[in-house]
Request: fold
Amino acid sequence: MSKEANGLKALAESVSEYDETHKLVKELTVMAEDESSGEELKEMARADLEEAKSQLDSLEHELLIELIPKDAADAGDAIIELRPGTGGLEAGLFAMDMYRMYQSYALQKGWKFENLTMTESDVEGLREASATIKGEGVFAALKYESGVHRVQRIPDTETLGRVHTSTMTVAVLPEAENVDIDIKQADLRIETKRASGAGGQHVNTTDSAVRITHIPTGIVVSMQDDRSQHKNREKALKILKARLYDHQRTKISAERASARKSQVGTGDRSERIRTYNYPQDRITDHRISQSWHGITEMMAGEYLDEIVDALREASHQEELESLTVN
Reply:
């Protein structure tokens, strides 16, 4: 049975359950108000009525969520890209911490985490990295991570105990392997050169590094992690396809969002979405003005589900409100 058929079957079952519960509420209301019934029976009916009403409200909320237009990318895989922002070396160290957090989170979810490219700094920080994460509902869970993440903590190199503020950016792209993205060869400018790295690492004597520019959009992807030019080209095209798909989706999403009064964040990479305050052991998501304690658990990948659930619920609420606008 296809996913669409399964979805329709589940919706039909939800509607049937809602109708049955609605019918029960009406029957219990009559019983609770029937003057000819004994007081004990009426009291039992009132108690059952409160429970049935609560269940009806829950079923109504679930049905409304089913009416929200589904994002076709939600069920699929994702490519995640991380880069340090402001804060120098500390930003690179924070970016590496976040990379490991997503890796741990993926392993706990039973997803496959595969590194695509990674460039490290001289102090075991990160200059940039990308990875594919494969599994059921990966993009649906991680899409809320796109944006600027801010950390407030005392760096190991800080001798005066001062708290520093640094940032890093996350981009989560739906993997476009099974999507019809037309990339014309004439639209690509492909350049090759010898790979190089910090301290002479990964230096090749052949032109294995690849840089691909998609001329119509100006999107550029560089890849030099592998010693094979063919494999670097393959990885670069994979990321380019994902970025083009994301570019296309973002354009459509922006058109849909223009009719809304507000959103749970725009998903824009330039938007600060979350702060990790180490001295206060607090994680704050600015899109929903909600905080949690337990940074150690968070950075071990154990906390993200709770934050994702809160963001998803807020997003659903915004979507439901948008359905009632005019």
